[in-house]
Amino acid sequence: MKKLNIHLVLIFTSLLSIFPFIWLISTSLKGNAENIFAYPPKIIPSDFTLQNYVGVWHQVDFMAYFINSMIVAGATVLLNLLLSALAAYPLARMEFAGKKFTFFAVLATIMIPFQAIMLPVYLITLKLNMVDSVNNFMGYLGLILPFAVNAFGIFLMRQAFLGIPKEMEEAAIVDGCNPFQTFFKVLLPMVKPSLAVLAIFTFIGSWGEFLWPSIVLTKESMYTLPVGVNNLQGMFSANWRFIAAGSILATIPIVIFFLFMQKYFISGENEGAVKG
Q: Which of 147, 173, 213, 263 is the most buried (most CB within 10 A)?
């Protein structure tokens, strides 16, 4: 009976969490003849249509926004995996003066929200000409580099490296590997689950980032998907059916990426729980 009550609570909580997404799907499938703000909410559309998806595809340059988001999210993920692992390796496997202070200083930055440092980061971005008004390449750099590495990624990878027996590293050294060979050929392949977890979190965060691109971008051709979908909302009116359809289309890559990396996800989270 106790387990039944727990499962009922979990099911109810899950339904509450997923309801906004279900309502979004329902809204994207409703035709113009149906009131999307009816109360109580009507989940199953009576005027079912797929024209909202066709309409949003032609209303904005959806494919260009998609490509921009893929470039930004893909590059951000790759840089986070590489830089976080490179920063975490000496913190986990090497001894040097100030090691603990350095680690705790990095860890302390988790408590600082990006909004608190956004203004100085924006000014630095402008000073370095990393804006799309210079050219598209510099615009991409302005979107990618501020999120190229973070304290969470360094912490996660450090915990993963701590979970590897030192004998593996010693065996590689005996075989003649230098520190870089040991890192890339021995240790890095052994922390694939943690790399997958970091990749998932980074991809979701980068793909859904709205505030920073909306601040630094000036050309519509450089818009990422969140900014492009928001562009459907006009000053005095908004087609909520198109916005819902665009939002659903924008979440598909996240779902696909997660499903592709899912087999590594659980074991990677467990690796992050190793005591440091």
A: 213
